[in-house]
Amino acid sequence: MSESTTREATSPAGERIDRALLRDTTAALRRWPAWLFLAAWLVGIWLQVSGGGMGRLSLILIIAGGCVAYGVIAWFAGRDIRADPTPLPVRAPAGEALAIGAAQLGVILFVFGYVLPPLALPGAFLFIFGVLAWAVTAARAGYRLRDFAWLRRSWRPFAMLMLAVAVPKLLALGLPNPIALAAAVPSGIAQQVVVQAGLQSRFEAVTRRADLAAVLTAVGFGITHTPLNLPLAGGDFWLALGAGLVFQAPIGLVFCIGYVRHRAPLPLGMVHAIAIT
Q1: Closest CA to 221 of 180, 260, 192
Q2: Torsion angle, CA of 214/216/218/220, rounded to 10 degrees?
Q3: Helix pair 265-276, 159-173: axis angle to 10 deg
Q4: What is the overall mean pLDDT for the chain?
Q5: How far out from the chain centre does Cα 229 lie?
Q6: 55-110: per-residue pLDDT in tens?
Q7: 7 has pLDDT over 80
Q8: Global pTM value
Q9: Could you tell me if 169 and 274 are in contact, meaning their C-beta atoms sit under 8 angstroms apart?
Q10: Are 95 and 273 in contact (CB under 8 A)?
Q11: How far apart are alpha carbons 12 and 104 in whole angstroms?
Q12: Alpha-carbon span 83 to 122, nearest angstrom
């Protein structure tokens, strides 16, 4: 999706919400990246059912329904008058994408090091190399202070998404531990800045498609969680991978949809912090 099609997908605030949502959903389903994500999700279902039995389908469908609901709320952020769908400036798309991609691969290898320890050290080195390569590439690309104006973008468009995450947690679990919340806020914000401003924006700059960048980022997010799913999967790698594709990847897609609608990773980081507290 080019910048022009990104603007087309952002519904004018005066348009009826049902018509705007139907139009944007129909437009998304006409593009092949949406079907690529659906294919990855179906592979995840197959891995879950083949490894854990048909009983897993009910949980998968519940999670899917919740992600659809939260996806609509994330989409709704774009109807706020303060929403800004303008892509972040990427001065050296190819070089920055390669560097950020290397850093992300390093993260994946490091996380997989919990299962296969020999992967942890190469993953750490690859992550450091990727970050340094990005820093050098970005320094030579000539970024200007105004390129970071996204740091000041409004948080208001994501207020409904924050409430949609916070209220059920408050009703079910009560007030969060202040220390845990204080630790979660910088963690959540840092992760969304890296994933959305770092990874998704670079994918978009290279591919010139916001939809493909969102799908690649969401699926990568799900795959990265595979080692973390292993304890609940009883050590079964394929079951854990399936969980990443059917549980974490759709959650990642919700964040990617929100980011396409309003390019402000800081409030999305707060949503993440509320979710993990």
Answers
A1: 192
A2: -150
A3: 10
A4: 92
A5: 18
A6: 999 999 999 999 999 999 999 999 999 999 999 999 999 999 999 999 989 988 99
A7: no
A8: 0.90
A9: yes
A10: no
A11: 35
A12: 40
In whole angstroms, what is the distance from residue 109 CA to residue 87 CA?
29
The residue to which tokens 């992600």 are assigned:
67
Residue type, 267: P
Q: Tokens standing for 119? A: 């992967």
For the chain, what is the HEC assignment? CCHHHHHHHCCCCCCCHHHHHHHHHHHHHCCHHHHHHHHHHHHHHHHHHHHHCCCHHHHHHHHHHHHHHHHHHHHHHHHCCCCCCCCCCCCCHHHHHHHHHHHHHHHHHHHHCCCCHHHHHHHHHHHHHHHHHHHHHHHHHCCCHHHHHHHHCCCHHHHHHHHHHHHHHHHHHCCCCHHHHHHHHHHHHHHHHHHHHHHHHHHHHHHCCHHHHHHHHHHHHHHHCHHHHCCCCCCCHHHHHHHHHHHHHHHHHHHHHHHHHCCCHHHHHHHHHHHHC
Give the Cα-Cα-Cα angle 13, 267, 155 (nearest 5 degrees): 45
Is the separation of the CB atoms in 122 and 109 below 8 Å? yes
Half-sphere exposure of 267 (CA within 13 A, CB side): 23
Q: Could you give the CA distance from residue 219 to residue 203 in angstroms, rounded to a whole number?
A: 13
pLDDT in tens, 149-166: 999 999 999 999 999 999
Q: CA torsion sign, 260 to 27 to 246 to 214?
A: negative
Cα maximum dimension of the chain: 56
